[in-house]
């Protein structure tokens, strides 16, 4: 299973915690982590690898797109966030698919079914956590096709084989630079604007569950079930702590913190061993 991640030193610890959960749910599988980073070193990954007890391989890519120096970035959204959209430019040609994961994630179940899912000729498979009205607003704002979806790009299965024949990287760069002033969640806006009509949807409750999504769901007048810890245990595959509500912060709100704390505890146990 090939996993793509793009981050800097600031999120190294959280990537480590995510990998502990990933390895725990894939103990009989070989994992290859393709990491795009300008400041994470091979020595950092060697330390992580020693704690995983897993058949896992790392490859670091020092990819940097100088054309994006004008692109919109913030403290929360550095230029690295665009790298997942340029995956065909630096990943090996023998890879036909790869699963991108943000570091602020906890894996609860085996992801083989997701990883092997049929693309049905689409570029990406992912989840949306916005309703129809906001989807329409985003379509207008991003000048996107009327059939386009707005994906949360923290969990993204990427069809490398299809993109190599269809994606125009110059068009991608031009779109980013031209639309920089109005980008809000930059990589997500760009993906909808250019490729939002070439995506296959999966359930955000199953594969991209957050406490924000739980709150919205449980407050819905049309819900068929309540999401509680038992539902999470039985149905959720990926927990995603996107936004400012992070489980390592004291002011975190929601029911998902214990799932993070489990692997945070393992992380501290593993990294304190001599």
From TrEMBL:
SUPFAM superfamilies cross-referenced by the UniProt entry: Nucleotide-diphospho-sugar transferases
Keywords recorded for this protein, A-Z: Glycosyltransferase, Metal-binding, Transferase
Pfam families: Glyco_transf_8
Gene Ontology terms for molecular function: glycosyltransferase activity; metal ion binding
Keyword Transferase: yes
Nucleotidyltransferase among keywords: no
Protein name: General stress protein A
Organism: Acholeplasma hippikon
